[in-house]
Design a protein that fits this description.
Shape: elongated
Radius of gyration: 37 Å
Strand order of the largest sheet: 1-3-2
Number of strands: 3
Structural class: alpha+beta
CATH architecture of one domain: 2-Layer Sandwich
Pfam families: Tctex-1
CATH class of one domain: Alpha Beta
CATH topology of one domain: Ribosomal protein S3 C-terminal domain
Helix content: 25-40%
Family: Belongs to the dynein light chain Tctex-type family.
Order of helices and strands: HHHHEEE
Oligomer: single chain
GO molecular function, one term: dynein intermediate chain binding
InterPro entries: Tctex-1-like, Tctex-1-like_sf
Amino acid sequence: MSAEKLSRIDSIDDTDKTRKGSHDTLQTDSRRPSIITQSRRQSRFSFASRRSLFGGHGSLIGMLRGGVNKNIKYENTYRIQPKPNERIKQKQLRNLIQTTLDHTLKDVIYEPLQARILSMNLANMLRKNVRELNTPSRYKFVVQVHIGSPERNSIFISSQSVWNVEMGDTYASAIFSNSKIFAVGIIHAVYFE
């Protein structure tokens, strides 16, 4: 063996002795310098320093489940009012509510437990029909359906809204009533800029 290799082996043996409990202190010169500079070294516990292999996605499984979800951004049209042909007509809304209530409730008898479910189903049906009537639309719809028994005392229903009629905001309501059940349907249509 060469003299250089023997001196390296001796220095390694000396450092092993000091590590195993010898009372001699280690010299800082005996350690090898790091190849990676301090500016490139990353902490194991730092979240900011770690990067996903898949870009902005959390994991491969997440990509396989939902695919690549990119949000589509639409440019602003800067329209604050609907076009005249896009305005919702109050008469159409009223007819839609009346035909839906008439068709659905003509043979129904009022039962308190089922009235809650029936009113939710009617509201969802009205919302779906209004969206089909006005597609594509910038309107947001609020649909309310109240169901009750005509045998009980009188009922008062009121609704208030803050809106701008010039912008196309409107509402419509219709009433269905027979000897077994009554219902009130209200649709508020608010233009969404």
